[in-house]
Amino acid sequence: MSDNSDGQAYWKANLRLVGLCMVIWALASFGFAILLRPLISGIAVGGTDLGFWFAQQGSILVFLVLIFFYAWRMNSLDREHGVDEE
Amino acid sequence: MDQTTLNFIVVGASFALYFGIAIWARAASTSEFYAAGRGVNPIVNGMATAADWMSAASFISMAGLIAFVGYNNSLFLMGWTGGYVLMAMLLAPYLRKFGKFTVPEFVGDRYYSNAARVVAVICLIVISVTYVIGQMRGAGIAFSRFLEIDIEAGLFTAGAVVFVYAVLGGMKGITYTQVAQYCVLITAYTIPAIFISLNLTGNPIPGLGLFSTMAEGQAGAGQHLLVVLDGLLTDLGFREYTATTNPWLMALYTLSLMIGTAGLPHVIIRFFTVPRVADARWSAGWALVFIALLYLTAPAVGAMARLNITTTMWPAGLEGEAVAQDELPDWFETWQVTGLLGVEDKNGDGRIQYYNDANPAMAELAAERGWEGNELVTFNRDILVLANPEIAQLPGWVIALIAAGGIAAALSTAAGLLLAISSAISHDLIKSVYNPEISERGELIAARISMAVAICVAVYLGLNPPGFAAQVVALAFGLAAATLFPTLMMGIFSKRMNAPGAVAGMLAGLISTCLYLFLFLGWFFIPGTAMLDSSQYLFGIPPTHFGPIGAVFNFVVAYFVSRATAAPPEHIQELVESVRIPRGAAGAVSH
Q1: Which CATH class is domain B3-215+241-302+394-465+473-588?
Q2: Residue B127 near residue B264, CB atoms below 8 Å
């Protein structure tokens, strides 16, 4: 860590990123797939509604994208703040 | 050559492969035994994690679990994958940076307390032992079903195979065997699914086929598969496939499985095997890629198999006659022998009527057409995966591959659990608490002996399962969610969290979860000792869904106790600072 304030900034950036990812994570699973399903039931997908698709396929795909996005963003944040592994 | 001989050859070949890997990947140091020398490529670790995670239940039972209930049981798909998001962002990279070997070791060092370490070991052992009983049972059943030997002989064989590569190679042997096991199980799972999807919808990707229209020549051609399935099921008096019942309970159960997944020690320790923190982040993504290959296929397998079996029973639709008993397909006959399918011609008309006789709305139609109850009397949910190759009319070697795949799924998960148990004993109890002076060589011997003992105990418990086999998985997930996950997370995200807070929190999670389970399911699951029944659920919450509530107890108790007691010492706050940044992870390799 170059200095303490940069370490603080790095940790804050990490928490913001994790927070954003958690919101999307919750929205794709608890939201669209379960609790908000009635709200989006008008959108038809393959013989059923969008909520059903989220429950059986979409949520898992969103999780995948989220983890890779997080890994990519964090690995570049490490370098920006000079805390990466040499 | 008959099918059993072919099964023996394919399963035997897979064992030869595992033994070859075991000899190649012998562990020479404790670092290799506990963490595969931290030299595992992140993609390879992702594959091993997928095999570690996907048990016999995922492989054999999950498609059926979804197919018999439909939409509501999507919670298993989301719960058992969504936990990886939590693990990737809240636990795995930081614990890898910490650079030690076991989960209780982080708890003990971070909370500078052997009491915290021992409580974590107890939680780990309760979680992993309850989980491993199911795996040993699953392996025994897979052996007996495919190789036509007793469950007991199957259990001993499973124990012996795991013994060879787990005792010899520790984490290193287990890692590379799990990679081979993943390849076997995913091939076995997807080949029949692709053929069935092609046949029904013309789409080779089952996850897309599920949302496609039926192919030419199929019943309901041109209509969507799910529309056809919904129609058939409602006509037969079953619940509509895509219908919702209680969304709040579904969300709570999903959350319970997600937090529980993230807190399972045998999965967390897999992320200790990669070289760098950045690799731990990527590796969680790769793990989910390999898991998703099966999890995206499973709902399609379930729905398509249910459709196939229903149309087999009603070849001319519900308006036509039911299938005649002597015209049932060959695979139906084969599986009847195993007792997973069973028919009984109750009204003696030589035909088998399959419908929901528990639905009062069907009584009128039944009376009118002379049905005297559902005649497909046994319809085991596991059949949906097991009979798939035969339904798709695939050759015998694919059926043998399903046998090898089911066994691989059970063995890979059992081995991962056994390593988590044995490393907690040899590293956390023997090395950290009982005899800190033990030499590297002595600890490696202790690790091998702990592994051997753990395998013997697991085989014994598999042979004599406590009478609560069905409830134990709920206990494992509930406890992981209520004890280890909050404690690990607070250890990373709160510098102020101290030893009294963590110990009180873990105990609050452990006791509240056990109490809720025991009150409704019986003390220590002993039948007849339950003190409350399902009408008395607190806010209607079943014990299986309790994990997140136990986790809340843990967080709240830990917060207040830590605020009322002294802040952790300076060097612990520095430790938390260092866990939060990746720099310096390489230095922690040589432990």
Answers
A1: mainly alpha
A2: yes
